[in-house]
């Protein structure tokens, strides 16, 4: 394979970025402190030597002219100290889906039964994320915790977009930069899995133009999976909340993930989340004041 297809160019740029971040000493190279290095991180020939391949072969990979074989890919993962998410990213780039042509897919929707389940989780913030981290569904407590998603136009309900463009959401996270960087890394992973997604390309283009931090972090090419974690929120009504979040993939559509937030029982965050839940509870079903049976008045 000698063409310069987009997925191979991205693979080469990704490898170049990763080797530029790697300290030679961490891979056992002896560096002559008296001679300044012309490049940041590892040189191409150093990566090639450590991977037991020729410099020319590695150069063609990095230039986007060649897809590495499985043994060579495994060697590069080892040499560049890539984690599981980074390895998966490379495999997506050279996998069978890497050459897909653009196809505009309809907006994802959740089944009514899933929304019913969300609504029944009255003391747990819950939402469903789809491709590109689009926000597909949520319950009352999630809206009270994060933002009023119903006030956001459907086409703009995207988690990463809100993180970068909504001042209230930006202020909500104590470590906004870590949250934002992770969001960008998850988007980058999605880009490898869905390389021909025009909506993802439009989102990345929009945020690259409007936010210099997004533009820089996208160029850094860091990737991540969304699985679980802990976030500290500065809620404007109940104060600081330390919440754990976990994701669950929906078997009916693996591109949809249920995200649940919870607090340690007995903690201050748990009590504050309980208070927020009581404030966001659905209003009682209207009944007639003088009806002893509590049945709804016609």
Automatic annotation (TrEMBL):
Residues 37-87 form the HTH cro/C1-type domain. InterPro entries: Cro/C1-type_HTH (IPR001387), Lambda_DNA-bd_dom_sf (IPR010982), MLTR_LBD (IPR041413). The lineage of its organism: Bacteria, Bacillati, Actinomycetota, Actinomycetes, Mycobacteriales. This is XRE family transcriptional regulator. It comes from Nocardia stercoris. GO terms for molecular function: DNA binding.
């Amino acid at each position: 394979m000698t063409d310069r297809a987009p997925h191979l160019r991205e693979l080469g740029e990704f490898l170049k970025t990763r080797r530029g971040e790697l300290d030679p000493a961490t891979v056992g190279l002896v560096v002559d402190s008296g001679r300044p290095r012309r490049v940041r991180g590892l040189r191409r020939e150093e990566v090639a030597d450590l991977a037991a391949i020729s410099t020319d072969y590695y150069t063609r990979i990095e230039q986007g002219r060649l897809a590495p074989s499985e043994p060579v890919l495994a060697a590069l993962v080892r040499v560049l100290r890539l984690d599981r998410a980074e390895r998966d990213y490379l495999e997506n780039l050279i996998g069978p889906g890497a050459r897909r042509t653009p196809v505009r897919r309809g907006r994802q929707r959740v089944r009514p039964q899933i929304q019913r389940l969300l609504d029944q989780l009255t003391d747990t913030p819950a939402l469903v994320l789809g491709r590109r981290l689009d926000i597909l569904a949520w319950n009352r407590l999630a809206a009270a915790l994060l933002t009023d998603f119903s006030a956001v136009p459907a086409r703009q309900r995207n988690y990463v977009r809100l993180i970068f463009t909504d001042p209230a959401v930006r202020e909500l996270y104590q470590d906004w930069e870590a949250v934002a960087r992770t969001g960008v890394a998850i988007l980058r992973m999605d880009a490898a899995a869905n390389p021909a997604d025009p909506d993802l390309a439009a989102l990345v283009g929009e945020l690259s133009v409007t936010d210099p931090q997004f533009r820089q972090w996208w160029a850094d090419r860091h990737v991540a999976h969304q699985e679980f974690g802990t976030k500290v929120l500065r809620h404007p009504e109940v104060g600081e909340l330390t919440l754990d979040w976990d994701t669950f993939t929906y078997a009916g559509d693996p591109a949809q993930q249920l995200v649940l937030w919870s607090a340690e029982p007995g903690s201050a965050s748990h009590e504050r989340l309980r208070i927020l839940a009581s404030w966001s509870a659905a209003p009682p079903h209207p009944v007639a004041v003088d009806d002893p049976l509590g049945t709804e008045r016609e």
